[in-house]
Amino acid sequence: MAEMDSTTGRTFAHGATRFAPSPTGELHLGNARTALFNFLLARHAGERFVLRVEDTDASRSRAAHTEGLLTDLAWLGLEWDAGPGREDALGPYFQSQRGAFYARLFAELERQGAVYPCFCSALELEASRRAQRSSGRAPRYPGTCRELTESERGRKRSAGLAATLRFRVPGGRRIEFTDLVHGTQSFLSDDIGDFVIRRADGSAAFFFCNAVDDASMGVTQVLRGEDHLANTPRQLLILEALGLPAPRYGHISLILGPDGAPLSKRHGAASVREFRERGYRPEALVNYLFRLGHSSPEHDLLGLDVLAGAFDVGRLGRAPAHFDEQQLRVWQKAAAHRLSGEQARAWLEPLLPAGIGAEAAGAFCAAVLPNVVLPEDAKPWVEIVFGAAPALDAEGEQIVREAGSAFFAAAARAASANGNDLGAIVAAARTASGRKGAQLYRPLRFALTGLGHGPELAPLLQAMPAGQAERRLARFA
Ligand code: GLU
User: Fold this and answer.
1) How far apart are alpha carbons 261 and 391 in whole angstroms?
2) CB within 8 A of 41, min separation 6: which ones?
3) What stretches in the chain show pLDDT beneath 70?
4) Distance separating the N- and C-terminal Cα atoms of the chain
């Protein structure tokens, strides 16, 4: 069944995936990859991609983080079909605005007796966990408040104790589901303690709102981090109790740093913002993340549409993926070298000296682009092209000396007559010296740039201020 979006007129196949970040920090590469995979899964099947902001934990959620998440996702090109700024009948897409909906479902669970108030304090719970651990058992809620009578509950309430709401996990059940990545999963309900679905402050807890929102937003497939695998049976129990449909879940491996620990700030840049600010291109990140944990026969830098066509949950690996910045740089290099002149200028603009003029800026960017992976690689060339005459190293001094003063006098005269025109300079030096090939070019390159290697000389010279080539050549005449 196809559904039409009333604002864009786009039609979608029935079904949706989603990305559901908690705005408690910056968009980390691991979460960016989760978003990408859900986006591609949706696009592959022509389904909707939903963005839901899981901001029920008021103490940890920040509006600034939400802004950051939206900016990063948009920058990566992961456009959502429904979510913040694209509200529709299934919203709102901020969990903090869905309290009335959750309250209805809490009431329904209370009516069924599927939940109960729990008055245990954090301290009591911690003591119980410690005791269980020290006797070699996995900690789970011991059921202290499970069978309180109404009058006991009343007494605790009038003593001013705040209650959480716990889900009463049915005993003796086996909960099975087929994970899109890990295959058949089986859990025993007896291993799962009753868990909190509403915090003492009245806000809905993760297990609950995450599950019921997927159901109410029409989400049919969820790819998320492996750290959520053990949450899934709890969420399936909630949905079952409410008679709501469960999505198919796929749990994707973590991204590890080079030392084998989960990728984090300790490994240097780990957030999308940091990579963006260092000048990484979105298409480089997207192409790299696509290959991180998703095997692919495609080795080219591909657009999101092509990646969506190639995306296949069957290709998601179970083993953790290792982040390797060198690999990211390979994609970055491919992305940088594909930039149009205009894009390259916008990308390198912040490095250029003020007031150099459009022509010089364009020539500079065109010249250095093939030698640049990140904007920082262009920095030394800004200095070389626009700054003071660069000093030569011993090798450069020798090569320049061997070419001789007549060589440079002729070259400088040509520059004086024709400006920073490499053709005229080379022709004059050739005629004066009879040199050719490297013998002709290397002394000129050293004199003009201070180095024996680098970007093509002709566009570099075009970027230089008037008289610059002449002054640099005349130093050796
Ligand atoms: N807000 C949760 C998180 O960021 C979402 C988990 C999920 O995708 O189900 O970890």
Assistant:
1) 45
2) 17, 47, 221, 223, 311, 313
3) 1-10
4) 80
**pLDDT computed for residue 450 by the predictor:** 97
Q: How far is CA 330 from the centre of its chain?
A: 17
Q: How far is CA 1 from the centre of its chain?
A: 33
Q: Give the class (CATH, top level) of 99-252.
A: alpha beta
Torsion over CA: 77, 220, 307, 284 (sign):
positive
341-477 is classed CATH 1.10.10.350: yes
**What's the 22 CA to ligand 1 centre distance in angstroms?**
7
Q: Is 182 exposed, middle or buried (0-12, 13-18, 19+ CB in 10 A)?
A: middle
What number does the ligand 1 atom closest to the CA of 227 have?
Answer: 10
Per-residue CA distances from 47 to 273, 282, 316 (Å): 28, 23, 19
pLDDT per residue over 123-141, tens digit each?
999 999 999 999 999 999 9
Two tokens, residue 78: 């992961």
- Read off the tokens for 394: 């011993």
Ligand 1: which of 36, 228, 229 to mutate, judged by most atoms within 8 Å of the beta carbon? 228
pLDDT for the residue 267: 82
| CA angle, residues 247, 253, 254, in degrees to nearest 5 | 120
What count of other Cβ atoms lies within 10 Å of the Cβ of residue 84? Answer: 18
pLDDT at 263: 87
**Ligand 1 centroid from CA 25, angstroms:** 13
| CATH 1.10.10.350 intervals, the chain | 341-477
User: What is residue 1's predicted lDDT score, i.e. its pLDDT?
Assistant: 46
Q: Is 125 helix (H, G, I), strand (E, B) or coil?
A: helix
How far is residue 264's CA from residue 195's CA, in Å, rounded to a whole number? 29
- Rounded-to-integer distance, Cα 401 and Cα 360, Å: 30
Provide the 3-class DSSP secondary structure of residue 409. Answer: helix
CA angle, corner 246, sides to 16 and 94, nearest 5? 60
